[in-house]
Amino acid sequence: MPFLQNAWYVAAWTDELGTGSLMHRKLLNQDILFYRRADGSPVAMTARCPHRFAPLHYGSLVEGERVRCRYHGLEFGPDGRCVKNPNSDGPPPQIGTRTFPLVEHHQLIWIWMGNPDLANPAEAGQEYDYLGQPDRYAVCKGYLHLACNFGLALDNLMDAAHVNFLHDSTLGSEALTLAKTVLREEDGVIFAERFAPDGAPSALFGQLRGNCEEHVDHWADGRWQAPCRISLKVGVTAVGAPRSEGMEIRATHLLTPETETTTHYFWALARDFQLDNSMLTEQLGATTQAIFTNEDQWMLEGQQQMLNGESFWDAKPKFLAGDVATAAVRRRLDRLIRAEQG
Amino acid sequence: MPFLQNAWYVAAWTDELGTGSLMHRKLLNQDILFYRRADGSPVAMTARCPHRFAPLHYGSLVEGERVRCRYHGLEFGPDGRCVKNPNSDGPPPQIGTRTFPLVEHHQLIWIWMGNPDLANPAEAGQEYDYLGQPDRYAVCKGYLHLACNFGLALDNLMDAAHVNFLHDSTLGSEALTLAKTVLREEDGVIFAERFAPDGAPSALFGQLRGNCEEHVDHWADGRWQAPCRISLKVGVTAVGAPRSEGMEIRATHLLTPETETTTHYFWALARDFQLDNSMLTEQLGATTQAIFTNEDQWMLEGQQQMLNGESFWDAKPKFLAGDVATAAVRRRLDRLIRAEQG
Amino acid sequence: MPFLQNAWYVAAWTDELGTGSLMHRKLLNQDILFYRRADGSPVAMTARCPHRFAPLHYGSLVEGERVRCRYHGLEFGPDGRCVKNPNSDGPPPQIGTRTFPLVEHHQLIWIWMGNPDLANPAEAGQEYDYLGQPDRYAVCKGYLHLACNFGLALDNLMDAAHVNFLHDSTLGSEALTLAKTVLREEDGVIFAERFAPDGAPSALFGQLRGNCEEHVDHWADGRWQAPCRISLKVGVTAVGAPRSEGMEIRATHLLTPETETTTHYFWALARDFQLDNSMLTEQLGATTQAIFTNEDQWMLEGQQQMLNGESFWDAKPKFLAGDVATAAVRRRLDRLIRAEQG
């Protein structure tokens, strides 16, 4: 299955890309070079030197603006054009490397790998503004490299049903698992919402409330936007009380295909309570990374192995009642990819 | 070359499959899950959950009968049908995973990977009854994972000629090597028999007799049954004496393709003498495993590397006079596979 | 891109092939066995036993002349014909393994992998006679296994432009880098010559002269012969003085494809000064191996990774003014290969 090209993907967390250094990451099976200009603005270009294919990330940054290839000293400006050939007295050669539109905000660097004329910066994940509002949200975040197709991770994240089983001792809530998923679609964005009134909280929220027994109203509202942007508001409040009186965690899950069988996974949790409790931030971060690594990643990579080279659709997945959100996302994404391929 | 599907293959030694646990093994390029029901009877099913491809062997056994998927908690009965979906109040979904006919006897678990209507349990290796008769035979056995196509191992096992060279210091007998192979075929079973009267015994039998010099009558009677069942009776007796007065070892070699380039190899030696000598059983077992590992496996995997991606037939093997049995087996197996493929 | 078949390639350094042992090396994606006959002359044959594909290099040498297969004891003479089958009383089977013309001189063993009728021993690298003249040249040499297509190494070696950048602290000379390349072709051999009068010497020659400041006349004369033979005379002399009064190093670079993405690289440096300074020979050897490993190999393998499975031409290399020699070599080699493929 080809990747959707005309879309914003997360390239990196803002703090992954320092000043004065070159960073390489493979995205959608393309080798990309990242760096920051002297003013801090990020630049992305094809990492393969157009001259003779040297990895530009083996090179260096000149005057904080240009990349110098380590092989022959050609220099490329932030627009990808060659601006200097030290091996010749003439003008620089009319060659260049492809650059990619980037948007950096809310701790994330977004990249557009498709037709640049179609790139609208206003569509680059502005819904994650809460990741950059430390006065309103305390955020912990992480990164995982997954040895599976991004689609399997997408399934996992849209899938409330697995939580009670795969994460039985951590995130599971039987009430939420059995709650009906209300699915709606608005402008291509799929919302999958679950509400479980008057039930036991999950172990996590029980702990946060300091009471695992007392019943609560529990919700989990998912949101997917093509191709790989998922957010989930999970919260509890006293039975019958308004949500604003309870506590809510906004879970952000952003996937970017590296290759057909490997995936970059960026995740974050933002909470609107106990903002100054940095110990809690640490704990939530470490616990989440451990759960994703030991439970989800293990399972996702196992699925990839079971596919044994077969594609997802050729393997004929069976969608059950609990999979309405997963199925809706898979089908919509497939339609988008087919439409793009023409 | 596709694998012969409608045939019994060895899946495991009986003692490899415990009670209460799930075992995964890839056979004929398919991931298979094994477990024992509460009554001890073995079950085999496709290890890939039909729902969304989770490895069922990551799951657990429920009430000694059902497999529960670790991902979403779906439960599958020993017939492969889904019997429970904990994420829904409705009836279990009409989905299932494929099961495979098994026969367990004489220390071996046999599996039928082809059309189940054609599976006849009476054909599942009943000729190896001597592996399960401790009052008549002392048995040692083992398992090797080979990084080669099963066909190369098959050649090796039908091939008396290599013994004197590859195993010169251990199993070799020049007399047997030079003996003419008498080949006959009965109901698709190929017999390859060699008899060397009045010659020196192999190092092994010389040692067992306590006399490496004295001449003996030596025999090696091979038997192949499609696709990968080989047994070999090797023995010595005093010159001119009946075989029943000598000593005989029944060597069993059972191969199951894992992938096109890897193979499961189950072997056993059963002897009809010194039954109570458990030290001898240990020694024979350790020696055999060492010979197979250091001499045969090394050679077989070297052949696979020399094929360098080419198929056996494309590489144009030259069959010599000593290869009559090997050639007969290869050709018959190829005919069976072509007939099955239609 | 297929390899050029009708050509001499370096198989090994003379001292890599001892007496009494078998050596295996993969060349042009073929497994080749090498050994020396009793008289010391080298023999090359397909390493795959024609009988049933055993690696002949697992075998042994018999009477210094014949290779005995470890699997079945077949023996092959230096002409590749089977001369003995110990498993049969009859004449040896009419089978054989392919042999290859070899030429050994000047410390190198050359092999012809194409049509043997076209092999002319007089064309096997006689221009490297200086490697075998210890009274006139002091030689250090080495071998690297490169994880890249041989073409990328070829580019590197014909390419004066990279020296000043990739090897800035070691071999670089700005004067030579900016010097114009004079290209000429004689009988299919491409010469690329650079001359930089009255400039600073490279760090290496400055050190050898004991003076890094004083200006010199500097030259670098490259020579390529299809498919993978490159030599380079690099030297300095006092400004205006004849070359014969200066010092010159003859660098030899010989590439042999192992597979499409791996390459054998044989290199040597021969100098015509300080012949008795064995410490200098050691130092030059160690330094060169370190430069090639840490700078060139690192870059070449990086380029291979950036190709990401694409072929060199499909990736559309841009040839600049400084690449005249590289481009000429690539194009001529491509013409030869296309002509050979017909």
Name the pair of protein chains with the most residues at their interface, and give those residue counts.
Answer: A-B, 28 and 25 residues
What is the 3D shape of chain A?
globular
- How do the strands of the widest beta sheet of chain A line up side by side? 11-17-16-15-14-13-12
For this structure, the quaternary state is homotrimer
Cα(first) to Cα(last) distance of chain A is 14 Å
User: Could you tell me the mean pLDDT of chain A?
Assistant: 94
Residue share in helices of chain A? 10-25%
CA gyration radius of chain A, whole angstroms: 22 Å
The percent range for strand residues of chain A is 25-35%
Q: How would you describe this protein?
A:
Three copies of one chain form a homotrimer. Chain A has 342 residues and is of the alpha+beta class. Chain A contains six helices and 17 strands. Chain A has helices spanning 150-157, 163-166, 174-178, 203-209, 278-307, 324-341, and strands at residues 8-13, 23-27, 30-36, 42-46, 60-62, 66-68, 75-76, 82-84, 102-105, 108-112, 138-146, 182-186, 189-199, 216-225, 229-238, 247-259, 262-271. In chain A, strands 11-17-16-15-14-13-12 form a seven-stranded antiparallel β-sheet. In chain A, α1 packs antiparallel against α6. The longest helix of chain A has 30 residues, at 278-307. The radius of gyration of chain A is 22 Å and the shape is globular. The two termini of chain A are 14 Å apart. The relative contact order of chain A is 0.15. The model of chain A has no long low-confidence stretch (mean pLDDT 94). Chains in contact: A-B, A-C, B-C. Chain A binds chain B through residues 152, 155, 159, 161-162, 164-166, 177-178, 298-299, 302-303, 305-308, 312, 315-318, 320-323, 326, and chain B through 29, 31, 47-55, 58, 69-73, 85-90, 93, 95.
